[in-house]
Amino acid sequence: MQNNTLNPEGPENENIVENKELNIWEALIPVVLLMTMLAYNIFYADGEWLGEYSNQFILLFGGFFAAIVGFFNKVSLKTMGQEIYENLKSVFVPIMILFLVGALSGSWLVSGIIPAMVYYGLKVLSPEVFLPASVLISAIISIATGSSWTTSATVGIALVGIGTALGIPTGMIAGAVISGAYFGDKMSPLSDTTNLAPAMAGTDLFTHIKYMGYTTIPTVIVTLIVFIILNLNINTTGSADVSGLLNTIDNTFNITPYLFIVPICVIALILLKTKPLIALGTGIALAGGFAIFFQTDILSSLSDSNVTAVFNSIFTDTAIVTDNEKLNELFSSGGMKGMLWTIYLICCAMVFGGIMDGIGALAKITKGLLSIASSVLGLFASTVLSCLGLNAIASDQYLALVIPGKMFKKAYQDKGLAPENLSRTLEDSGTVTSVLIPWNTCGAYQSSVLGVGVAEYFIYAIFNWLSPFTTLLFAALNIKIRRLTSNKS
Length: 489
Description:
Elements: H1 24-43, H2 54-72, H3 77-90, H4 92-110, H5 113-123, H6 130-145, H7 148-165, H8 170-187, H9 192-201, H10 205-232, H11 243-252, H12 261-271, H13 276-294, H14 296-302, H15 306-315, E1 318-319, H16 325-328, E2 332-333, H17 340-358, H18 361-372, H19 376-393, H20 397-414, H21 419-431, H22 441-450, H23 454-457, H24 462-476
Antiparallel strand pairs: 1-2
Helix pairs in contact: 1-2, 1-18, 2-17, 3-17, 4-9, 4-13, 4-15, 5-6, 5-11, 6-7, 6-8, 6-10, 7-8, 7-22, 8-10, 9-20, 9-21, 10-21, 10-24, 12-13, 13-15, 14-15, 17-20, 18-20, 19-20, 19-21, 19-24, 20-21, 21-24
């Protein structure tokens, strides 16, 4: 059996609450009310019904309605409270990792590591391989930053501008940028969704990333092949001039290959199966030292004390201003503070899920799903459809991970499937497809930032729509479907 960082006692020892007093329709009441409130928030209140933390409050309201259903079905407050406590306890490590992820983003920024990745990434650009290069550049930057949104809003905009000047259709360019950005978002330990999915499923971050590689690497390879073929069949004119961006980065930071020592060390620790907290903590400490050694001018511009500047980058907001507006957003970070929104979402989801579990609703719903999805493929397909449906209905990729993750967790255990099967499926169908829905926050954001409509880039966002098919193909052929009773992949 795989070691479970989130639940050291193992998933088989988790208490699955069943309630014979509860029927399936009563179990669905909190879910329907939750979906109704989310729909109202998105379609009528522009996501600001209850302020910045609308989704978090809605999850708490959903938990309140679930508690009322529980009271009417003879469930004590103590039982519900105990399940909430167990849920919150189970995500303690992911929350600590999220804080370190924020700290890593800030420290890697002021140390010049992220700017160096952007700098060397842009240098490989040439018209003959523009589209596949755009995929790779976006992927590299998104892995470095953990953010598909930031990648698109910075280098993505530049690539669309450059590609348009070369005469390449904007839909193709945007599709290449989005494909690479979401590949990086999925595979980066800095990404909030990459931390959120294993937290919901009950596995650890690096097991999740490794297991995602089985479906994600083939998908991105197919994506690159398609873009290479597309690039060979289009005529380009002009030149890909990124000298302005390169000069700005070079003038702002001390760019040197030595900065890559830090990410190489972190990757080495990950490959050596070092605990995530230690690996990420080491990356932060090394980045702080490199910042003081290589980026004294940057630190001096941020604070009177170099050490204070490094600590601020770890804990709070940091913004490095350049003479290029496209780079200013990329060269900013929220540190640990920037992770609070996602952490609040996780905690509120644990409250909702804990009450739903405590009243027996999750057991009732998952039993209903299992009766429909009797096969392993059927369970995977049900997960994919649930994620796609929530991306369309709730218009939020976080909720497309949180709700199916909590709902399906017990179903995967009942089938003897390791939790990384669920976390991988959540990302393959929840994270990457959000950008394909025009009214989803991701689709609306990307089309607005890149200036390309969803309908234009949809077919070219190959990685995004191909990912759910890949995960279902692996399930149908029983490829890399890890069982709880086996130590083998």
